[in-house]
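Sequence in, structure out.
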Amino acid sequence: MIKPHNVNSEFELSGINHVALVCSDMARTVEFYSEILGMPLIKSLDLPGGRGQHFFFDAGNGDCVAFFWFADAADRVPGVSSPGAIPGIGDITSSVSSMNHLAFHVPPDKFDSYRQRLKDKGVRVGPVLNHDDSEIQVSPTMHPGVYVRSFYFQDPDGITLEFACWTREFTENDTQAVPKTAADRKVPVTR
């Protein structure tokens, strides 16, 4: 299985401990992540003072996905707090400091069967995207320039999720884009 394997010269990091998201209905979230995606629920707790709940799911490889349920959380605003659509179907822009999507690594040889399995479970999935370095950055077919295959779907709260598999090793040529700054943005920067 191809995965990046670079060395961090500053800190001994070994992956993601957990990503914490916010849901509107914890019971529905538990059903989706445990029953649809098969992630075991490993920890659940009520926050002090009735403020909410915090649940953790095992995402494999020692990584977890966690959810908060806050009694007073504002509703999602598509196109602001999260993308308005999933890649391959519509606009994927979301605001600064939002989480755009969460990608899960899946084995390349199970990629297509996993997509079908989600469809069989009633989950709306986007098209298969073979990400490459072409002008439109996606190819309808596999070729040596494809670096990751993926498809996207959403959880019951509209959180964009992705099943992805790396298809080749990365080289120095894969890091040639020059980083943009806040001054490059099309909207005024607020401080």
